[in-house]
Amino acid sequence: MLWPADYHNRWTIAEEVSLAGVGLHSGLTSRVTLAPGTSGGLSMGSMGASPVSLRHHLVREQRLCTAVQLPTGLVRTVEHLLAALAGVGISDVQIHVEGQEIPLLDGSALPWVEAVAAVGLQLLGGQRSPPVVRETVCIQSGDSHVLALPYEGRRFSVAVNYPSQAIGQQFYEVELTPEQFVEQVAPARTFGFQNQLDALRSAGLIRGGS
């Protein structure tokens, strides 16, 4: 699969593709169908309703996942799917969800990337107008923070520091392109720690985890 060289042009998928699996937190089976779109953005619908344009005001805070509020209800654990679509350069697509949660699959964005590769991409007319960081923005929660700085490009620098030796201290930096996303970012998998499992399951979470 030859991925776009950058994120300047508008792309959609060439034809429909579906994946099904179990949700990480609900433990319930769900199905997602991706369909070509030309409306100028990502849109999502559930329970047979027409897709609505995904915007930041639809995001809802949830423990250990990202969720979006649709007219038909909350759809949880959207992060791997949306990362895959944005990461490979897709600007226009319709997402149809049958269920309350996006399936976990192998715990990474890679299965979604592979699904897109199986049907291919279609170039649309016109160029994109991506958001631009014009001044420094910092969001902090406890010992963690995200810092966005004005920059002519898409450079990401990520550092983690966990007590567990299995993860420990790690640093990753990339000037992101669709190809770099597919090769280096998409395979990264969700992880958890054994000593947290009982507490999380008691809280009604990770019922579909293994």
Q: What would a concise description of this structure say?
A:
Helices cover 16% and strands 37% of the residues. It is of the alpha+beta class and 210 residues long.
Strand and helix map with partners:
Elements: E1 9-13, E2 17-22, E3 29-36, E4 42-46, E5 52-53, E6 59-62, E7 65-70, E8 73-76, H1 79-87, E9 93-98, H2 110-119, E10 121-127, E11 137-141, E12 144-148, E13 155-161, E14 169-175, H3 178-185, H4 197-202
Helix pairs in contact: 1-2
Structure report:
This protein is α+β, with helices and mostly antiparallel strands and 210 residues long. It has a domain at 9-130: Ribosomal Protein S5, domain 2, CATH 3.30.230. It is 16% helix and 37% strand. It is built from four helices and 14 strands. The protein has helices spanning 79-87, 110-119, 178-185, 197-202, and strands at 9-13, 17-22, 29-36, 42-46, 52-53, 59-62, 65-70, 73-76, 93-98, 121-127, 137-141, 144-148, 155-161, 169-175. A five-stranded mixed beta sheet has the order 2-3-9-4-5, covered by helices on one side. A three-stranded antiparallel beta sheet has the order 6-7-8, with no helix packed on it. Strand 11 and strand 12 form a beta hairpin. Helix 1 packs across helix 2. The longest helix is centred in the middle third of the chain and has 10 residues, at 110-119. It is globular, with a radius of gyration of 18 Å. The protein starts with 8 loop residues before the first strand and ends in an 8-residue tail after the last helix. The mean pLDDT is 91. It catalyses: a UDP-3-O-[(3R)-3-hydroxyacyl]-N-acetyl-alpha-D-glucosamine + H2O = a UDP-3-O-[(3R)-3-hydroxyacyl]-alpha-D-glucosamine + acetate. This is UDP-3-O-acyl-N-acetylglucosamine deacetylase. Its cofactor is Zn(2+). GO terms for molecular function: metal ion binding; UDP-3-O-acyl-N-acetylglucosamine deacetylase activity. Its EC number is 3.5.1.108.
